[in-house]
Design brief:
The protein is of the alpha+beta class. Helices cover 45% and strands 19% of the residues. It has a three-stranded antiparallel β-sheet. Helix 3 crosses helix 4. The two termini are 41 Å apart. 19% of the residues are buried. The N terminus is likely disordered. The structure holds L-tyrosinamide. L-tyrosinamide (TYC) binds next to strand 1, helix 3 and helix 4.
């Protein structure tokens, strides 16, 4: 049976017989913030082009890419992945560049998860 923390506070480390120092001091581990990358629907970008983008830049298989493209088409937008800031920024840049080079108005954005 463990005793309340306030009673253990002024005793020597192992007085409770648990040698529990490492477990009791639990420093807050900081995880980096994550970012959702989203595709937005529009009326002009061809469906196959969006599927190609999802395969090429997000590593999705064809079936999954098609499914997410359809979700964007129907709902207006969808999250296509969640990444660290730098990776998310790179993906957004790659998609926007590729769409612009092919003269499609496709929009890709990111926001904090
Ligand atoms: N709505 C487009 C069309 O009907 C297809 C589309 C899907 C466009 C997803 C953008 O992010 C998008 N051709």
């Amino acid at each position: 049976m463990r005793e309340p923390l306030h009673m253990m506070a002024d005793r020597k480390d192992d007085a409770d017989g648990e040698a529990g120092v490492a477990l009791k001091t639990r420093p807050k581990t900081q995880r980096p913030p994550m970012y959702k990358v989203m595709l937005l629907n529009d009326d002009y970008t061809p469906m196959e082009f969006v599927v190609h983008i999802l395969e090429r830049f997000f590593g999705l298989g064809h079936a999954k890419a098609f499914e997410i493209m359809l979700m964007v088409h129907k709902k207006g937008l969808a999250v296509v992945g969640v990444y660290s800031f730098e990776v998310a920024e790179t993906k957004v840049g790659q998609v926007m560049d590729f769409a612009r080079r092919h003269q499609h108005p496709l929009q890709c954005t990111m926001e904090k998860d």
